[in-house]
Amino acid sequence: MKILVVGGSGLLGRHVLDELRTRGHETTAVARTAREDVDSVVDVAKASHDELRALSEGHDGVVFAGGMDDRAVGKGPVEPRLYAGNVAPVAALLRAAREAGCTRAAVLASYYTYFDRIHPEWGLAAKHPYVDSRLEQARVARETAGPDLPVAMIEVPFVFGAAADRVPQWAVPVVKWVRSAAPLFAPVGGTATTSARGVGIAAADALEQASGADVPAAEENLSWEDLLGRMAGAAGRPRRVWPVPSWPVRAMFRLGGQVGRLSGKQPGLKVEHFGGLLLRELYVEPARARPVDAAIRETATAIR
């Protein structure tokens, strides 16, 4: 196959490219800025339909590995920014890919859509604009692509790994914390995790199968205590992680939400509700279970 990968210069995009190439597929890497390993410099969010159609010609499939994540914070309503980053470019790309004759697609999405699907009582979309944008992304993607272009949504949890100078941005402050002399504290709860390579494998599998499925890309479930302990060990400062009660965590995030509202800045995940989410066991039954220790070490080594 020949696959177009939008966001090919990012951490996950690079691992998708690597996995596809390892399997013998031809790839075209697309990014907004020129880099040594980028084949085409195109900002999909700003490109015309004709430009995207020409870009998609000759490819069997497309991958969208870009978008706006939940950490982005800015002044004013966050919903329009999330739509512009996560929904509009996917719709534009898939419309062009469908017309160009592509037969498969994958979008790197978020595991929060998985939890919204299996736990609708949590009300994640109503509480968090980021989750709502990811649900809208999936709906619009499949509506735009139609039955002849199956779109797999790769639901990505917390990621470890590195690619050249790319690392998971959420891990940067955590690695600095575990490298310091400060004590480590963790609440109850935990999260599904994966390696960047695991995301590449999940995307390549979905493309080869033209599955069009929702694909949770989890490899190992970790409690917050275990996650911090493993990161501390990988960073060369192994030590005990102390448990912290749930009530101060909830109180801290409620206070953070109030401060954020006063500043006028809105994040994709509402701070006042994030404490309750953090204290849950955000676990996913891994389709491809494996330890993520090597990817944790890779992350700690790459962050300086």
UniProtKB/TrEMBL annotation:
<feature type="domain" description="NAD(P)-binding">
    <location>
        <begin position="7"/>
        <end position="143"/>
    </location>
</feature>
<dbReference type="InterPro" id="IPR016040">
    <property type="entry name" value="NAD(P)-bd_dom"/>
</dbReference>
<dbReference type="InterPro" id="IPR051783">
    <property type="entry name" value="NAD(P)-dependent_oxidoreduct"/>
</dbReference>
<dbReference type="InterPro" id="IPR036291">
    <property type="entry name" value="NAD(P)-bd_dom_sf"/>
</dbReference>
<protein>
    <recommendedName>
        <fullName>NAD(P)-binding domain-containing protein</fullName>
    </recommendedName>
</protein>
<dbReference type="Pfam" id="PF13460">
    <property type="entry name" value="NAD_binding_10"/>
</dbReference>
